[in-house]
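Marked as duplicate of an earlier ticket. Keeping the data here for the record.
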Amino acid sequence: DIPDSYPLSSKRKKHQIIHGYSRYMFPMVTGFMNYGQQTVRAARYIGQSFMITLSHANRLPVTIQYPYEKSITSERFRGRIHFEFDKCIACEVCVRVCPIDLPVVDWRLETDIRKKRLLNYSIDFGICIFCGNCVEYCPTNCLSMTEEYELSTYDRHELNYNQIALGRLP
């Protein structure tokens, strides 16, 4: 004799067998349907993200390869200071407007013509904050900002530029 608990018992009615079968098959069929829907959705998301990537492909690069390519500086960029020795009248306005009293101006008073004569002018770029006040307030425009930004060195004493080094254009 076959027990009643056995799934294919002859004592069970036909609709009970179908109902029992669908009870086990329905989650499996819906699982396959959900799997298919999720696969289609994932493929759509991958396609959308790939389209975003392709839309950025024809844009210009933002980064540059530094030692080989130089960055383009703006008009208002404040780089190394250029100094013209012949224009300077040793008025020391640059020293007075500098927030850290950085430019070192050595001069001598010429008694016969009663004018200052510039002997030495130096700026230490290891201390300079590149504020641009000295350039802005110079009455003779002997100071100007250049676009030179490569001031790195292994010895900080090399950053102390005298009038000869300041006079070189980049």
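See parent ticket for discussion. Strands lie at 81-83, 104-110, 115-124, 143-145, 160-161.
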